[in-house]
Amino acid sequence: MLFQSAESRYNQWVHEHYRFLLRSAWALTGSRAIAEDVLQDCFANAWKHREQLRDPALVRAWLFQIMRRAAFRQTVPGMQSLDHEEQPELAAPDPGLDDKLDVVKALARLAPIHREVLVLFYFDDMPTALMAEALEIAPGTVLSRLARARDALKLAMGAPVPIKADVNVTPFRRSKT
Amino acid sequence: MNPDTDFDPPALSDSEFDLRARAELAIAFEASDAPAQLYLKPKPLFARRGLQRFLAALLLAGGASGGVLAVRPPAMVRDAIDHEYHERTLRGSFMEQRQLLMHLGMREAKVLPGFPQLMRPCDIEGHLAYHLTTFFEKGGMVTVYAFDQPVDLRETSGWWSNVHWKVIRSREGKPLLLVAQKKKALAVAQTALQATPVSGPG
Hints:
The structure holds two protein chains of two kinds. By secondary structure, chain A is an all-alpha fold. In chain A, about 60% of the residues lie in helices and about 0% in strands. Chain A folds into two domains: about 1-75, RNA polymerase sigma factor, region 2, helix turn helix motif (Rna Polymerase Sigma Factor, Chain: A, Orthogonal Bundle); about 85-175, Winged helix-like DNA-binding domain superfamily/Winged helix DNA-binding domain (Arc Repressor Mutant, subunit A). Chain A has helices at about 5-30, 30-50, 60-75, 100-110, 110-125, 130-135, 140-155. In chain A, α1 packs antiparallel against α2 and α1 (about 5-30) packs across α3. The longest helix of chain A is centred in the N-terminal third of the chain and has 24 residues, at about 5-30. Chain A is globular. Chain B has a seven-stranded mixed β-sheet, with helices on both faces. The longest helix of chain B is centred in the N-terminal third of the chain and has 23 residues, at about 50-70. The interface of A and B includes residues 14, 22, 122 and 153 of A.
């Protein structure tokens, strides 16, 4: 549309990207309720800073960028940074994990840095360039991080990994019964 | 060896593994549509600040240009005002006083009204005009244009380019264009040019 008001542009973002962002935030935070709060923050920030989006083609990556920041602000207190790979205690699964599917349990055990790249890959099949934009890293880093994250996920799911990778998996915490 | 406990899962290829992961994640993270409160209600058209500013600017620009057009005199008057501006400091008699009196419709008068500063034929918008700049003691400097041929000038007055102008009729009914910096000077000149024959300066 040639003349689209800011409100209708924003509404279009919500309509087109909410589901993807909700699933991503849910997978990153481990809680649907927190994910919904995260998205409230995310869209509020997106509206507030809507002028910062220069290229409309990057809107999904841009919204993801805002969402991941909001997600890591709202999750467990004490979470420091998105880019710390070595945080096994922060990636601890919730007590109800035993009822969940293998891949969900495995994903919950991964470090946030691996979880977010897998979320982009599995939920959206996002091109590498856009993933790089969304994660604020170089495209080459995306590929290497994705490879490591997939290996980590495979390991966490009990599938054999062809080459021993430098992966970061949090051991299961058995819930007390 | 117990086949149930010692079962070694077959190695998944990347594509199989990815398919499985995608499918399981899709089931596990089933998302709903965005809640209605997340959407913004579109503002009414006239409540938009941008539109309000645009309309205000349009109104202002329209008012300003309308005002300018309302006071804009005919082309001949504008050219005469421009001519007066360029010859404001020019002094001299470049034509006979008698001849100028005739064109001003003051055949019976002996002398020009006021203290003449400049008398010359000139060209105003392609028309031959007789230019008299004269000083009235009680009004100031006035420039009078008398036209040789009939011109389409209605009896009206106005202000343009920082000078006052007025079109009057001579005693013979010919249009005379007066230009002065002071409005009072126009009234004094009009009286002198239209009333009784002028017999002397002032």
